[in-house]
Amino acid sequence: MMRMVPYELDNGRTVIGIEVKLPKTTLLAWMTDKGYIMCGALDVGLLNRDLADRGILAGRAVGVRTLEQLMEAPLESVTTHAEQIGIHVGMSGREALKLLA
């Protein structure tokens, strides 16, 4: 099952949450037109190493089970390109999304 939910940040911008229920796991992501944050399934190393030429703006939070937790959790890793716009490890998902929106 898949669920998509819009969420308005306090800066007036809207982000889209995506929850995909798979056998034995759930994929979680919040996205904007510029980039996204995602649960532990995201391979930031792959994005930085093999897809660096794409300039992907993304962050990863681990140990989250809901979209709400992903919004509040500190980012465990971020892409090099995300760092260049001020997104950093330890920043909450919500704060990162403000920079991506």
TrEMBL record:
SUPFAM superfamilies membership: Hypothetical protein Ta1206
Species of the source: Paenibacillus terricola
A Pfam short name: DUF1805
InterPro entries, A to Z: DUF1805 (IPR014931), YunC_sf (IPR036493)
Superkingdom as given in the UniProt entry: Bacteria
Protein name stated in the entry: DUF1805 domain-containing protein
